[in-house]
Design brief:
Largest sheet: 5 strands, parallel
Oligomer: single chain
Number of strands: 5
Radius of gyration: 19 Å
CATH class: Alpha Beta
Low-confidence stretches: none
CATH architecture: 3-Layer(aba) Sandwich
Number of helices: 8
CATH superfamily: P-loop containing nucleotide triphosphate hydrolases
Strand order of the largest sheet: 2-3-1-4-5
């Protein structure tokens, strides 16, 4: 007997679903915006400067009249991924969901800026496979761990080293740097504005923006 208000079966994957053809596609939506849609994926350690640089790129793209959206790791965990923790499985699911959302936004013709630690190479590569190869631009924000710890803008490294925060990337959880990112930003003694200009140069070269 199942009590009132309780679900008497387990949730499971649907099998009787079919792909619905759409009359308006990515090409039409991108043409309306006069731009080439893409995912610009910023990866690096906590405190590396990913969101700072991504915000500057977003600002410059918008000033030039481009249609963008920014997905930030902390912000997404307040809503879409608020049910996830920081175990390895949760981190994988976090990036899978973000990747699927970013793919939908690319289908809408947008330039999608994603700022996530995304510590596992396999998950970043998985997101790359969701879109055309030319539509994924990986930006490695390469900041030495010692510098990230010194910055520690959110006080997370202090908590992690004190044992108050488990599975923290760079302390007791691994970070796998990209093997061949489209953009490799070595941030030591480089201003965020200069680093953002390097990303913009790559976007122009690839025809994402003018």
């Amino acid at each position: 007997m199942v009590g009132a208000g309780m679900i008497g079966f387990e949730l499971r994957r649907a099998t009787n679903i079919h792909w619905q053809a759409l009359l308006v596609g990515k090409a039409e939506r991108a043409a309306l915006k006069q731009q080439k849609p893409a995912i610009v994926w910023f990866t690096g350690l906590s405190g590396a400067g990913k969101s700072t640089i991504a915000n500057l790129v977003d600002q410059q793209l918008c000033a030039a009249g481009h249609h963008t959206i920014m997905l930030d790791g902390d912000n997404v965990r307040h809503g879409l991924n608020r049910d996830l923790g920081f175990t390895e499985a949760d981190r994988v699911e976090n990036i899978r969901r973000v990747g699927e959302v970013a793919k939908l936004m690319v289908e809408g013709g947008l330039i999608v800026l994603c700022s996530f630690i995304s510590p596992y190479r396999a998950e970043r590569d998985m997101v790359r496979t969701l879109v055309e190869d030319s539509e994924f631009i990986e930006v490695y924000v390469d900041t030495p761990l010692a510098e990230c710890i010194e910055r520690d803008p959110k006080g997370l490294y202090a908590k992690a080293t004190a044992g108050l925060l488990k599975n923290f990337t760079g302390v007791d959880a691994v970070y796998e740097p990209p093997a061949s990112p489209e953009v490799h930003l070595q941030t030591h003694e480089a201003a965020p504005e200069y680093l953002a200009s390097r990303v913009m140069a790559t976007l122009r070269r690839r025809g994402v923006c003018s």
